[in-house]
């Protein structure tokens, strides 16, 4: 993203920390033009503090200019060699804080950075040398013997901090950095992001493996456990007095891959406060109502109290920054606007959950079966009886008001996109109902009775005629789950994700935010707040900007 007001079309400088690091998580802090970043370096199990800007001069942000120390030659064998290293250059956006060693092995020189690793490019005497990523430029002249080396340091303000254990995840609040730490005594650590001062910690239960963190508006902190079926609820003033905090355990269906808190007002103007939990390996997001202390059941038609099936294990969660426009009109012909939970899944999709109901957000059409008026494809024509023996005239009725032959649950995610077969069995005087994904249903259908599938996903009515059904007679139809799904970046802007577009084969954990559009100085024009989420496609090194209100990905950055 740009940070240059004089050239808004130019990409901003990178913020280097060293190519040999393995960075995970990111927390950003801002104060009157000063921006400080924090990340976990998983390669060394440390925290990294990275200055981005130190203030603003005029309209331009001020970035730290990297510096280099004077090179020192080490004559390892005291042979009297005296080569020189001159013309040292460092570059903003490329040079980081590290120690450099440029050593001669008897045959060639090798350049190695403590945080950039051994360089592939070879320093050659008498030639200007550029390190692999442009971190360092210099020229060596003269001869040396094996073991001789130059030492120098570069500095762009990056600092490292160790913790008593292995940092696994972090979360930035307004003025605190919260860190999950796996150690003999599992901890949630609290750090001052501006000074790097360790402010204290909260001990978690023995055997815990703390992972993702979320925080409520009242300061309550929720820590997922990646190996045990639990979320740790930390109450009290965690940010300022961690020692006085109390910890309770919320049992979950499985170890937790991600956790997110959200509060707001649902489509019926009812206030809610909920915790969204993604159980590891399962294909759903479970929802805990913090007001009632109970798990929310989005689908009362199913005996199990659990979130709706999204078809793939979850990659990550993010609460929308504000209410999102839904696509389907309510009974009064208006489009509801509600907070949503953004969910990325391991099969390459980004969904949203209506945080008020727990159901997946649906498209304008929504979940549906065959309707000849609205559907022209052959697979979505009305189901007619397929006689397998003597003539039968049973029929699957069509609702005259809606044109729908099969009523499909309006709770997004309850119904799956699949083919259904309804076959008559004379021995039980009933119809066997089977979905290509849902399998054979326990509930049987009976002629002249309303049928509802085991989970309440579909419902239909088979009316008997003058000619009774016989063994093998069947109806076949298709159901579309009708979810609002983002599956890639529409590069050619044709409204479809197809050949030539970028898919999200391995979407990361989403990052939700909002953007203010329009005048803010008053007047007739309304200020518009658009809801977005950034999702990195790890298969393509691309970041997609998903417009949550429209349910599409509008642009991607490589």
The helicity comes to under 10%
Overall 3D geometry?
elongated
Provide the CATH topology of the largest domain: Lipocalin
Oligomer: single chain
pLDDT < 50 stretches: none
How many individual β-strands? Answer: 45
Overall residue-averaged pLDDT value: 92
Supply the CATH class of the largest domain.
Mainly Beta
Given helix and strand content, the structural type is mainly beta
Second CATH tier, the architecture of the largest domain = Beta Barrel
The Cα radius of gyration reads 30 Å
How many domains in all?
3
Largest sheet: 6 strands, antiparallel
Strand content: 35-45%
- Give the end-to-end Cα distance, rounded to a whole number of Å: 11 Å
Number of helices: 0
Task: Give a quick summary of the entry.
The chain is an all-beta fold. Helices cover 0% and strands 43% of the residues.
Describe the protein:
Helix content is 0%, strand content 43%. The strands form twelve sheets. Strands 5, 6, 8, 9, 10 and 13 form a six-stranded antiparallel sheet that branches. Strands 1, 2, 3, 4 and 14 form a five-stranded antiparallel sheet that branches. It has a four-stranded antiparallel sheet with strand order 15-16-17-18, with no helix packed on it. By secondary structure, it is mainly β.
Task: Please give a handful of descriptors for the protein shown.
558 residues; mainly beta; Lipocalin; 3 domains; six-stranded antiparallel β-sheet; five-stranded antiparallel β-sheet; 45 strands
Topology:
Layout: E1 23-31, E2 34-41, E3 46-57, E4 60-62, E5 67-68, E6 72-74, E7 84-90, E8 98-104, E9 109-113, E10 117-118, E11 128-130, E12 136-141, E13 149-155, E14 159-161, E15 166-172, E16 177-182, E17 187-191, E18 198-203, E19 210-215, E20 221-225, E21 230-235, E22 246-251, E23 256-265, E24 271-279, E25 286-289, E26 294-295, E27 314-319, E28 324-325, E29 337-338, E30 340-345, E31 349-354, E32 395-396, E33 407-408, E34 418-425, E35 430-435, E36 439-440, E37 450-452, E38 458-463, E39 474-479, E40 488-489, E41 502-503, E42 511-517, E43 528-537, E44 542-547, E45 552-557
Antiparallel strand pairs: 1-2, 2-3, 3-4, 3-14, 5-13, 6-13, 7-12, 8-9, 8-13, 9-10, 11-12, 15-16, 16-17, 17-18, 19-20, 20-21, 21-22, 23-24, 24-25, 25-26, 27-30, 28-29, 30-31, 32-38, 33-38, 34-35, 34-39, 35-36, 37-38, 40-41, 42-43, 43-44, 44-45
């Amino acid at each position: 993203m740009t940070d240059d007001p004089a050239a808004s079309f130019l990409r901003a400088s990178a913020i280097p920390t060293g190519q040999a690091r393995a960075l995970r998580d990111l927390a950003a802090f801002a104060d009157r033009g000063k921006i400080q970043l924090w990340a976990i370096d998983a390669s060394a199990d440390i925290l990294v503090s990275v200055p981005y800007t130190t203030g603003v001069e005029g309209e331009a942000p001020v970035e730290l200019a990297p510096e280099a120390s004077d090179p020192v030659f080490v004559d390892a064998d005291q042979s009297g060699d005296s080569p020189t290293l001159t013309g040292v250059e460092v570059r903003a956006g490329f040079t980081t804080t590290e120690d450099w060693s440029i050593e001669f092995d008897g045959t060639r020189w090798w350049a190695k950075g403590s945080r950039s690793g051994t360089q592939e490019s070879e320093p050659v005497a008498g030639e200007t040398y550029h390190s692999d990523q442009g971190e360092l430029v210099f020229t060596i002249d003269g001869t040396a013997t094996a073991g001789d080396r130059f030492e120098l340091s570069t500095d762009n303000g990056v600092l490292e901090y160790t913790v008593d254990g292995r940092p696994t995840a972090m979360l930035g609040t307004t003025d605190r950095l919260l860190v999950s730490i796996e150690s003999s005594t599992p901890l949630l650590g609290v750090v001052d992001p501006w000074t790097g001062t360790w402010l204290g910690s909260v001990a978690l239960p023995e055997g815990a493996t703390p992972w993702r963190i979320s925080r409520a508006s009242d300061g309550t902190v929720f820590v997922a456990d990646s190996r045990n079926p639990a979320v740790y609820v930390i109450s009290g003033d965690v940010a300022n007095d961690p020692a006085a905090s109390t910890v309770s355990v919320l049992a979950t269906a499985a170890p937790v891959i991600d956790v997110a808190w959200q509060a707001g007002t649902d489509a019926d103007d009812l206030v809610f406060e909920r915790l969204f939990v993604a159980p590891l390996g399962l294909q759903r997001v479970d929802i805990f109502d913090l007001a009632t202390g109970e798990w929310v059941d989005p689908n009362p038609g199913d005996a199990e109290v659990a979130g709706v099936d999204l078809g793939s294990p979850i990659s990550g969660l993010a609460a929308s920054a504000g209410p999102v426009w839904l696509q389907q009109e309510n009974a009064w012909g208006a489009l509801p606007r509600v907070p949503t939970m953004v969910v990325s899944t391991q099969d390459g999709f980004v969904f949203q959950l209506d945080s008020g109901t727990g159901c997946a957000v649906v498209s304008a059409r929504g979940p549906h079966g065959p309707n000849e008026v609205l559907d022209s494809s052959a697979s979505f024509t009305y189901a007619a009886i397929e006689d397998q023996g003597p003539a039968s005239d049973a029929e699957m009725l069509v609702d005259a008001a809606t044109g729908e032959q099969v009523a499909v649950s309006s709770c997004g995610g309850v119904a799956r996109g699949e083919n259904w077969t309804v076959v008559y069995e004379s021995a039980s005087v009933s119809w066997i109902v089977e979905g290509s994904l849902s399998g054979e249903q326990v509930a049987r259908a009976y002629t002249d009775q309303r049928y509802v599938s085991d989970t309440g996903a579909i419902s239909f009515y088979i009316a008997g005629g003058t000619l009774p059904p016989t063994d093998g007679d069947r109806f076949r139809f298709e159901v579309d789950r009708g979810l609002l799904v983002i599956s890639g970046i529409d590069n050619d802007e044709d409204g479809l994700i197809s050949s030539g577009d970028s898919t999200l084969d391995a979407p990361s954990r989403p990052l939700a935010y909002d953007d203010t559009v329009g005048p803010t100085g008053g007047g007739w024009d309304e200020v518009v707040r658009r809801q977005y989420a950034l999702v990195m496609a790890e298969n393509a090194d691309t970041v997609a900007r998903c417009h949550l209100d429209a349910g599409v990905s509008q642009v991607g950055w490589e």
